[in-house]
Amino acid sequence: MAGIVGYGAHLPRHRIKAEEIAKTWGADAPSYKKGLMLREKSVPPPDMDTITLAVEAARNALKRSGGVDPADIGAIYIGSESHPYAVKPSGTVVGEAIGATPHIHCADFEFACKAGSEAMFVALSHIDSGMMKYALAIAADTSQGAPSDALEFSAAAGAGAFIMGKENLIAECLYTHSYMTDMPDFWRREHEFYPQHGGRFTGEEAYFAHTKGSSNALLEKSGMKPGDFQWAVFHQPNGKFPSRVAKELGFTKEQIEPGLLAPALGNTYSGASPIGLTATLDVAKPGDMIFMCSYGSGAGSDSFIWKVTERIDEVRDQAVKTAKLLHENLIYVDYGTYAKYRRKIKKNY
Amino acid sequence: MREVCVVGVGMSQWGEIWRRSLRQLFVDAASDAIKSSGVDHLDGLYVGCMSSGLFVGQEHLGALMADYLGMRGLPACRVESACASGGMAVRSAFFEVASGASDIVMAAGVEKMTDCSGDDATYALATAADQEYEVFNGATFPGLYAMMAHAHMDRYGTTREMLSAVSVKNHKNGSMNPVAQYPFAITRETVENSVMVADPLRIMDCSPITDGAAAVIVTTEEIAKKLGKPYVKIIGSGVGTDTIQLCQRDDMTTIKAATIAFEKALKMSGKKLDDITFTEVHDCFTIAEIVVLESIGKYQPGEAGKAIVAGETALDGSFPVNTSGGLKSKGHPVGATGVAQVVEVYKQLTGQAEGDRQLKNSPKVGMAQNMGGSGASSVVHIMEVGS
Amino acid sequence: MTMFSSRNWREYPQRYRLEASKFKKSGKTYFPPRDVDPETGDTEKETVILPDTGKIITYTVIRVAPGQWGDMSPYGLAVAELTDGTRLMAQVTDCDVEEIKIGMEVRIEFRRIQTESHEGVLSYGYKFVPKWY
């Protein structure tokens, strides 16, 4: 089976604390911090967007690829709900920046928070089909939550990138499963700046039904049990949802711990479970099994079972680790700076 | 080559001149120059202007200005070398007369900078830097000179006090110049409490946005004598260039283009550095005055700032610099500046400088150093009093 | 207005990938690439990729920023000498402007540089960030 040849992540250094957002809107910070497990979130400065995050994550993936020639990459897929252009691909910029153009296939994916795992799924399929030697899948977002909306406590930025191939793997993909229904739990209409959501309707029938639907089918397909995995990564719109679904499926706290980034990072949307996977690979050992399940509103889940290879020990330190980007050298901003950075303030251009 | 003289000069009012347009400012200065020289016609006109196209949407200044001066048919064109456009216009007139092709040529400079927004003016000025590799990346003109200042401070220990001394001196001189934009004296505290623009440069380290024009009549010595007006000889003209990108210069603490221009002008003049007893230099920012004085070899690297603080470059010092008030106090209508520097040297050499800024002891040889961009081009003229 | 999209597109190899010219005779590397070696007049050259780390040799902090960079103001601007000796000028981002100093080690990151009006083309390129890992 196909698998990951190189992986990397990139995160903004800027953070805003839940208290800072709560203070501005008179909201109750503890209900976000304890209730939803959202302490703080990443904030992209004005010179950072989905494309720049994708380029840096891709460069880190190349560093861990053991010398993949970018010209050998046959496809670049970027999953995001915040592509900087409505019309003009993000992937071509990444292709130029890493030197992978012009003999390459390129597409931008969009499926709420699932676009990144979608890119991974398609990239893996290309390798399995024998169509190309390498395919680059990137999950990146600089998502926006409307001011004062609950989403504002979580909508964050980050990127994860994976070079898929057949040889010299870091992690082999053993099984995948996708599970979709039509679900109006969260959306953003064309030309609208902020998304809308169904409030509590985004829980049981949306996130939980689809992540469990996909995960249970994959466990059944693979004949494996939660106990067979060292690690598990779930989509994380906050810290609470993935913790609860993991528990209900029979995974332990310890299994999801390295990949559960939301409490300190927020929800990186398309990037959420893919970046969680990079953080998990950073600590995984040869032979470890990793369970991964994304979720995107609208709605669907892609699940993957990864088996880590011996090569992880060689490549782990070839690029910056996700936990380092997550926890070190942070720059905290106030709400005014955050509002300016996220272009939430109306001004004359 | 024939001997070339400046026989008459003119200036418009400088400042925010809301009631005068680009062409009117030119006519103010040009008429003044014609009147003061006594010439009854011109054979040619060079108009130094950096960016009228961006500032007011007007190019093709040669024809426009000749017409509005009442001289339709006059051979005329615009000359451009960023903020050194004025000096380049003087040089063009100089060579046209020196070559024998023409006898009486006007060199003028003009810029109308206040008819656009601050952002647009910043953009227009920044076109003198490398658009793709400096401006694209966020460089502004104060920013480029600020980086020179930090490099100079780091290498030679140049201080805040030295930068302030340039501004204070030039404002003192400018307070005696009736056409200056900011004709008032300031203190060191004024400079050091002013708003930071680009570290370490504060607003009072920067020359202002100015509307203004200047003009000089360039002719042969024979005609100058016949006119019976005071005149000065242009005995040296030099130009130098360097890479437009600051970071590609061998040394960011010196301006090689100024060194080259000065050495060429000095060689042509047959004089020695010490024969020159005063100069106008292109103090678009305070650090520029320090760097230029070192680049022309008047002071060793790292020594100019100390000399300025010690008063050596004051009106009553051993080597007065920017007696006009310089770009800082007089103003900096970019295309006009190089011509106005020649106007000031003319006035000092002919004893016509207004008020107490006239140098004592009848100076014999003076210099004007004009500069484009962050120092990618420079024009130097050395002038001697007419006999 | 100039057509910014084509002007910017032409510079992608330099702005996106830091491609530079290395001349045969002098062995000198120039960024941005040139057709003629300014020192020797040589035109024989190869394309090289600049290293992505270096240190600041001079800098400023732009506090009165053109509207284009208003959201970034105040921002650092510096000349860095890269590990191969070439120099380039770029903004210093992701740091407190008061921390910028000569000698500071930086890394080059891919960033958005300009946004042409509200509707126009986005341009990308290189910026310096503090080298903290």
Poorly predicted parts of chain C: none
Quote the beta fraction of chain C.
Answer: 35-45%
| Spatial order of strands in the largest sheet of chain C | 6-5-4-7-8
Protein structure class of chain A? alpha/beta
Secondary-structure element string of chain A? EEHHEHEHEHEEEEEHEHHHHEEHHEH
What Rg of chain A do the Cα atoms give?
19 Å
**Oligomerization state of this entry?**
heterotrimer
CATH class of the largest domain in chain A: Alpha Beta
SS-derived structural category of chain C: mainly beta
Tell me what the CATH architecture of the largest domain in chain A is: 3-Layer(aba) Sandwich
Average residue-wise pLDDT of chain C: 94
Q: Biggest sheet of chain C: strands, sense, closure?
A: 5 strands, antiparallel
Tell me the CATH topology of the largest domain in chain A: Peroxisomal Thiolase, Chain A, domain 1
Please report the two chains with the greatest interface, counting residues with C-beta closer than 8 angstroms to the partner's C-beta: B-C, 34 and 35 residues
Number of helices of chain A: 13
Please, how many helices of chain C? 2
Shape summary of chain C:
globular
Which blocks of ≥5 consecutive residues of chain A have pLDDT under 50? none
Describe, in plain words, how this protein is organized in 3D.
The complex is a heterotrimer of chains A (349), B (387) and C (133). Chain A has helices at residues 18-25, 29-35, 50-63, 91-98, 115-129, 203-222, 240-249, 253-256, 262-265, 272-283, 312-315, 322-327, 335-341, and strands at 3-10, 14-17, 40-42, 73-79, 105-109, 134-142, 157-165, 171-180, 186-187, 196-197, 231-234, 289-293, 300-308, 331-332. By secondary structure, chain A is an alpha/beta fold. Chain A folds into 2 domains: 3-171 and 327-341, Thiolase/Chalcone synthase (Peroxisomal Thiolase, Chain A, domain 1, 3-Layer(aba) Sandwich); 172-312, 3-Layer(aba) Sandwich (Peroxisomal Thiolase, Chain A, domain 1). Chain B has helices spanning 22-37, 52-55, 61-68, 85-98, 118-126, 131-135, 141-156, 160-174, 188-192, 221-227, 256-269, 286-295, 304-309, 326-330, 334-349, and strands at 4-11, 44-48, 76-79, 104-111, 196-198, 201-202, 212-220, 232-241, 278-280, 365-372, 377-385. Chain B is globular. Chain C has one domain. Chain C is 10% helix and 42% strand. Chain C is built from 2 helices and 8 strands. Chain C is globular, with a radius of gyration of 16 Å.
